[in-house]
From TrEMBL:
<dbReference type="Pfam" id="PF12771">
    <property type="entry name" value="SusD-like_2"/>
</dbReference>
<keyword id="KW-0732">Signal</keyword>
<dbReference type="InterPro" id="IPR041662">
    <property type="entry name" value="SusD-like_2"/>
</dbReference>
<protein>
    <recommendedName>
        <fullName>SusD/RagB family nutrient-binding outer membrane lipoprotein</fullName>
    </recommendedName>
</protein>
<dbReference type="InterPro" id="IPR011990">
    <property type="entry name" value="TPR-like_helical_dom_sf"/>
</dbReference>
<feature type="signal peptide">
    <location>
        <begin position="1"/>
        <end position="20"/>
    </location>
</feature>
Length: 494
C-alpha cells in the first residue's frame, strides 16, 4: 500500500467536500476530471492508520492502533505499565474529562462513509471497483464495532445509533444497548463476506476473509467477557457463540491482529514519536518488580537496561518534587528499544490474549477445555510473540509457585498474566483491570482527584453540556456518581 498516494487521495476528498459547500459559484471552479465519490480503499487505510502528522515529531493519533486506541498513553499510566518522569499529573489522576471528537469525526466517520457509499444505490456500483460491496461493508462494520467498543469502554453511555449523522444534538445510548448491537454487528458482518473482490487498502489482513472472521469472533469473545459481573448469562452465551463458530478465533501468533508501522516518520510506531527527543515516561517499578519477581524473560523485551545494565522501574505516581529528587539521584529504565522501534507493530488482539480468555472461560465452567493448559499456552504465545521463548526457562516458569495456578487463585493468576501479556496495550489492560480487579493495583498515595482512586472512566467532553445539553444531562443522570472519573460504566461492577 502506498501511504503517500492514499493520503493524497484523502486530501483531495476533503477539498471536494469544501467545494461542494461553495454552491454559489456554480461550475466555475469545478474540475470536470475530478472524482466526486470517495476512494473507499483510501478511507479504509486511513481508518486503520490514522491521519499522518504534519510535524517531524508528530504521531499517528487515530486508527485502530494509534495513540487514541491500542497505544493510548494515559491508560498505561492507570494500569501502571509506565510512570511519568517529569510531569506526573496524569499519574496522579488529574484528568477530569476527555474529548472524543477525533474518534467520531475521523476514524468512525471514515468507516461510516464506506458503509454509506456501499449501501447507496447511486454510488455502490462505482465504489465496487475497490472491492465487492459486501466485503467492504463487512470490514467497515467490524472495524466500526471495534472503535465503538473502545469509545463506550472509555466513557460508558455514548452517542451510537444516531451518531455520525452530521448533527451535534445526539442522544446517548445506554452501554447495555450498545453492547447488544455490537454483538449483532459482529455476527452479521462476519456472515456478510462474499466471494467477490477483496477490499483494497486492507493493511490489517490484506483481504484475508478467514482472518477477518477470526478477528470478529475474538472481539465478540473479549466483549462477552466484559459482562461477567453485570450479565453473566449473556456473557456465557455470546462467548460460546463466538468460541464455537466454525471460523475460529485468534489462537496463534500467525493470526495476531497488528498494524505494521514503517520506518517513515509519518507512518512510524506512535511510541517512537513519543520518545523522539524526549523521555517523559519510564517503565513503572510496579511492572519491573513483577517481572523480576517472576524471573520473567519478557523484562528485557519490555524495558531497557540502565547504563549499569540493570532494570530499574521508575516509582509510580510521585509528585513533581519527589520525581525531581528521585531522577536527580537515580537511573530508571525506559521502554525497550523493541517497544520504541519505528517499525514495531501495534498489537490490537493477540493469541496470548485470546488463550487467556479461553483459560478464564474454562475456569468458569463455560467450556470443557483445561484451564491450566490454555493458561500455559497463553504464556508461551506471549513469550514467542516477544521473541523470548526458551523451553527450559518456560518449563521452570510455569511450574513456579508464583505462576502455577490453583483452584482457589486461577482467576487471579489469569488476570496477572493477562496484564503482563497485554503490554503495551494500556486501553485493553485498563478495561480488564476494571472488570476483574487483577492485578491488585494500588492508587498512588499522591492522587489529586476527588476519589483518590484509579479512574474508572473518562468524564464526557466539556463541550457536551453546551452543544448537546439535553442528551448529556440524561446520560449523566444514569451515572451513580455523576459525570466523574470514579463513576463506573455499565459492565464495571464492584
Amino acid at each position: 500500500m502506498n501511504f503517500k498516494h492514499k493520503f493524497l487521495s484523502i486530501s483531495l476528498f476533503t477539498g471536494l467536500g469544501l467545494m461542494a459547500g461553495c454552491s454559489d459559484f456554480g461550475d466555475m471552479n469545478v474540475n470536470p476530471n475530478a472524482a466526486t465519490t470517495p476512494v473507499t480503499s483510501a478511507l479504509l487505510t486511513a481508518a486503520m492508520t490514522g491521519i499522518p502528522p504534519t510535524t517531524p515529531t508528530g504521531a499517528l493519533l487515530e486508527g485502530i492502533a494509534g495513540r487514541l486506541t491500542a497505544l493510548a498513553v494515559e491508560p498505561r499510566l492507570f494500569v501502571q505499565y509506565w510512570s511519568e518522569s517529569q510531569y506526573p499529573e496524569n499519574s496522579q489522576y488529574a484528568t477530569t474529562f476527555a474529548d472524543w471528537n477525533r474518534y467520531y469525526a475521523v476514524t468512525l466517520q471514515d468507516l461510516q462513509t464506506i458503509i454509506d457509499y456501499n449501501t447507496n444505490a447511486d454510488t455502490k456500483t462505482y465504489v465496487a471497483q475497490f472491492g465487492s460491496n459486501n466485503n467492504q461493508l463487512a470490514v467497515a462494520r467490524i472495524l466500526k464495532a471495534y472503535l465503538f467498543s473502545v469509545v463506550t469502554d472509555r466513557w460508558g453511555d455514548v452517542p451510537y445509533v444516531n451518531a455520525l449523522k452530521q448533527t451535534t444534538a445526539v442522544p446517548y445510548d445506554p452501554q447495555q444497548a450498545i453492547y447488544a448491537d455490537l454483538f449483532k454487528e459482529l455476527r452479521e458482518a462476519s456472515a456478510q463476506f462474499d466471494n467477490g473482490r477483496a477490499f483494497q487498502g486492507d493493511i490489517l489482513f490484506n483481504g484475508n476473509q478467514a482472518r477477518w472472521k477470526k478477528f470478529a469472533n475474538s472481539l465478540r469473545m473479549i466483549l462477552a467477557m466484559r459482562l461477567t459481573k453485570v450479565d453473566p448469562a449473556t456473557a456465557r452465551t455470546e462467548f460460546l457463540a463466538a468460541y464455537n463458530d466454525a471460523a475460529g478465533y485468534i489462537s496463534t501468533n500467525a493470526d495476531n491482529a497488528t498494524i505494521q508501522f514503517t520506518d517513515v516518520n509519518q507512518f512510524r510506531n506512535p511510541d517512537n514519536a513519543l520518545f523522539d527527543g524526549r523521555s517523559d515516561y519510564g517503565v513503572s517499578d510496579v511492572l519491573v518488580n513483577k517481572l523480576k519477581a517472576l524471573s520473567d524473560p519478557r523484562l528485557p523485551a519490555y524495558a531497557a537496561p540502565t547504563d549499569n545494565g540493570d532494570y530499574l522501574g521508575l516509582p509510580y505516581g510521585l509528585t513533581r518534587e519527589l520525581l525531581i529528587a528521585y531522577t536527580n539521584d537515580n537511573e530508571f529504565s525506559l521502554p525497550s528499544a523493541k517497544v520504541l522501534a519505528k517499525t514495531q507493530p501495534g498489537y490490537i488482539i493477540t493469541a496470548a490474549q485470546m488463550l487467556l480468555a479461553k483459560a478464564e472461560a474454562a475456569a468458569r465452567g463455560w467450556i470443557s477445555a483445561d484451564a491450566r493448559t490454555a493458561y500455559n499456552d497463553a504464556i508461551r504465545a506471549s513469550w514467542e510473540q516477544w521473541g523470548v521463548f526458551d523451553a527450559t526457562k518456560y518449563a521452570a516458569y510455569i511450574a513456579s509457585p508464583a505462576v502455577l495456578p490453583t483452584t482457589g487463585d486461577i482467576l487471579a493468576k489469569i488476570g496477572d498474566q493477562r496484564w503482563l501479556a497485554l503490554y503495551p496495550n494500556g486501553q485493553e489492560a485498563w478495561s480488564e483491570w476494571r472488570r476483574t480487579g487483577f492485578p491488585d493495583l494500588k492508587p498512588t498515595p499522591y492522587a489529586v482527584n476527588e476519589s483518590k482512586q484509579i479512574p474508572r472512566r473518562y468524564a464526557y467532553p466539556n463541550s457536551e453540556p453546551t452543544l448537546n445539553a439535553a442528551a448529556y444531562t440524561e446520560a449523566v443522570g444514569r451515572l451513580q456518581n455523576g459525570d466523574k472519573t470514579n463513576a463506573r460504566v455499565w459492565w464495571d461492577k464492584p
